[in-house]
Write a structure and sequence with these properties.
Layout: E1 2-7, E2 18-26, E3 29-38, H1 41-49, E4 54-58, H2 66-72, H3 78-87, H4 89-102, H5 114-119, H6 132-146, E5 148-149, E6 157-164, H7 167-175, H8 190-211, E7 214-216, H9 228-244, H10 266-273
Parallel strand pairs: 1-4, 3-7, 4-6, 5-6
Antiparallel strand pairs: 1-2, 2-3
Length: 297
């Protein structure tokens, strides 16, 4: 099976392109292959439309939190609210989220999905810092238009499957909170390189235990200071794990929400299944994806 890991960005350029790693999965071994760098969305869209069979793991939030959807009054179907978000335009989408946040009380301005709480990831409404809200805005409509299948969110082509990946949860599980990347040259350090190397070594060593996969990849993936290449490998690992569980809901958590989406990772799925979706946001933050003794997300 062809497996593609994609490190996504909301504004691809030559300096910060979308990074894609094509891999092959055969008899329990995931073998890393060709790297590609896409400085615009055209190549990303071509990849989504390419004939299957393949599965891709892409690092951006595919959906929004139910609390946000319900409160703002967006359509209740994933495809419909994705179309609505896109119809606002990039600036209109920003204004809508800014206005929503301005009217909410402190501590209840941005909401996380059940899968975000389990993974320790930030709200898909976030526009600053890591602008995952803009990643959703640019990525989700392209998934919808491409006709791919997004398990539990959208039925499309059966031989083109896309799942949401999140490298951060893999990194925290394997090396804790160690910093392993930075896009700013002056902030790139030897310690970060050593952290990337440790992350790679742990992934290869523990791949069979954690993901049911032997991982065959070149350590040179660690050389990229921004870790886009290494993150693309982590996305591919999560996608390959999901493909291995295609007969069991692709490894999704129990009763996944058909509006929010879910992150393809065994620990996240287990933790999401235990997380309630009712009650105020701050009361739902206690259940996070972690191993005993690991820092919370």
């Amino acid at each position: 099976m062809k497996v593609i890991g994609i490190d996504f960005t909301s504004r691809p350029s030559r300096r910060k392109p979308i990074t894609a790693l094509s891999c092959s999965l055969e008899e329990g071994t995931l073998t890393a292959g060709e790297l590609e760098w896409w400085p615009g969305f055209a190549a990303f869209e071509e990849m989504l439309a390419a004939p299957g069979p393949w599965i891709a793991g892409i690092d951006f939030p595919f959906g929004q939190a139910c609390r946000f959807i319900d409160t703002i009054g967006w359509p209740q179907n994933w495809a419909d609210y994705v179309r609505h978000a896109r119809s606002l335009g990039r600036d209109g989408f920003r204004r809508t989220l800014d206005a929503y946040r301005a009217e909410r009380p402190a501590g209840d301005k941005e909401h996380r999905r059940a899968t975000d709480r389990a993974a320790g990831s930030i709200s898909p409404q976030k526009l600053f810092g890591v602008p995952v809200g803009l990643m959703f805005f640019e990525g989700a409509p392209r998934l919808l238009r491409s006709g791919v299948t997004v398990p539990h969110l959208h039925d499309g082509a059966r031989d083109r499957i896309v799942v949401e990946a999140y490298p951060g949860v893999v990194a925290r599980r394997l090396i804790g909170r160690r910093s392993y990347k930075n896009d700013t040259r002056r902030k790139q350090t030897l310690d970060q390189f050593l952290a990337r190397k440790a992350l790679f070594d742990e992934l290869v060593a523990r791949g069979p235990e954690l993901y049911g996969l032997a991982i065959d990849a070149d350590p040179s993936l660690c050389d990229d200071p921004g870790a886009d290449q290494l993150d693309a490998l982590l996305c591919a690992v999560q996608a390959a794990w999901s493909w291995g569980r295609r007969g069991d809901a692709y490894g999704a958590p129990r009763c996944p929400d058909a509006r929010e989406g879910w992150i393809a990772d065994p620990m996240v799925s287990a933790a999401t299944s235990m997380t309630s979706t009712s009650g105020p946001e701050d009361e739902r933050d206690a259940t996070v994806c972690q191993e005993p003794g690991a820092p919370q997300g």
